Amino acid sequence: MKNSIGREIPDFIPGLGKVTGFGGAFARKPVGRTAGAALSTCLPRADKLLASIETAIDAVGLKDGMTISFHHHFRNGDRILNRVVEAIAKKGIRDITLSPSSLNTVNDALIPYIEQGVITAIETSGARGKMGRFLTEGHLKKPLHIRSHGGRAQAIESGAIHIDVAFLGAPACDRYGNINGIQGQSACGSLGYAIQDAAYADQVVAITDNLMPHPLFPISIPQTQVDYIVVVDSIGDPAGIASGALRYTKDPKELLIAKYAADVMDYSGYLQQDFSMQLGSGGASMAVGRFIKTKMLERGITGSFGVGGMTGVFAEMMEEGLFKMMFDVQSFDIPAIDSIKKNSNHLEMSASYYANPHNSGAIVNNLDAVILSATEVDVDFNVNVITDSNGVIMGASGGHCDTAAGAKLTIVVAPLLRGRLPMVKDAVHTVVTPGETVDAIVTERGIAINPKRLDIIDNVKNSGLPIMSIHELKDIAYKLCGKPEAIQLSDEIVGVVEYRDGTIIDVIRRPKF
């Protein structure tokens, strides 16, 4: 079958079963009820503290075929996921479904456990490095299942993902299981993705390098959701968890793209008193914040809130009174972590509160504008952030399609060329965010507005900005470096990209390397 954006989606995919094709950003309505964790009990004066990860694996009764989850707030500093899988492998447990909120290059160490059959399925937001290529080559028994952050929350709450055991890295944890992410040597800030897992997993194991007296305060994950606690020497490398000082791009191309994006937002009419905004974590996306800040100061306006994975760019603006508050699902750098520690108006939020389309109102629905990056875009405004020019998995869905769907104005920033490759094409290799939810593509050589947004087109027509059609942008790119040759693909499906509502927006087929 072809889904609503013309992608060929099999009705049945081996390893996944029967699937439903994407029918539009808001076509699928939720049915049924939310799932729930297994009931548990803890008797008075019971001790949740266990001697080791191995002891915890025994205590939860982990066995072949179960699903385990992790959060990725430690990013490339994570010392939990690989260690737990290694312990599982040594116990001879096989056929595990791995369901982390995302994978990073540090998780390349898991490749041998896929080869051994310890891990046979992965459900996550994306993969990078050697792992990304390994999965693209089709070495996983079942296709990689990619979900956005909001889509993962939706899947957990609906029961599409059933987590048997969540292993949660806890920067601070007391002896009864209360957890936060802002204290200790491995502080990572918000625990927004872990909050979801703790609430819905049948059993939860907190792994900490900072055991504190009860009661811990503040509490991100309560003791009522934690079954066991293990103390280890280190759960994360601070150098890999977050970047240090605030880093602004100095790249002239990125700065020009950022300036254009800020100008589009300005002329669109959404840059006004009490507006809300999300910035991506890429160089150009973050730089937009500096140009927006200048415009706000010049006009004397302030914003209502910032949202998303937070960086020091937003923390700085909030502390200067330019935004009232921040909703943080993931703290990216030291300034953001410091901010959530000390500012009561810097709020931690769960992935469901952030972006789940099937609840009574995710915060992305209240966004005026979002600035997003892209690997490539096409003439239908579809966006790819998962695969590279060779069709290799190298990125993550993240909150891309979630915020694009929720915001009134979605601006995607990307260079027109990367090296000798066009980033605006006839068709992207893999669709993550559908063009119907994208309003503007901003490059250093020109800006394209989605033809459906007649209001924005009218507002920017006298702006002096280099406005052109998306086809003109593509033609410029092709004239500069030529039309790229099509990637030769096999029929083997090595990955599926699920839209935030649970439908399949695209599949990833193994390239013929």
From TrEMBL:
GO molecular function annotations of the record: citrate (pro-3S)-lyase activity; citrate CoA-transferase activity
EC number of the protein: 2.8.3.10, 4.1.3.6
SUPFAM superfamilies per the UniProt record, alphabetical: NagB/RpiA/CoA transferase-like (SSF100950)
Catalytic activity: citrate + acetyl-CoA = (3S)-citryl-CoA + acetate; citrate = oxaloacetate + acetate
First-listed, main subcellular location of the protein, grouped into a coarse class: cytoplasm
Pfam families given in the database record: CitF
Residue stretches spanning the membrane: none
Subcellular location(s) of the protein: Cytoplasm
Keyword field contains Transferase: yes
InterPro entries in UniProt: Citrate_lyase_asu, NagB/RpiA_transferase-like
Keywords: Cytoplasm, Lyase, Transferase
Protein name: Citrate lyase alpha chain
Species the sequence originates in: Pelosinus baikalensis
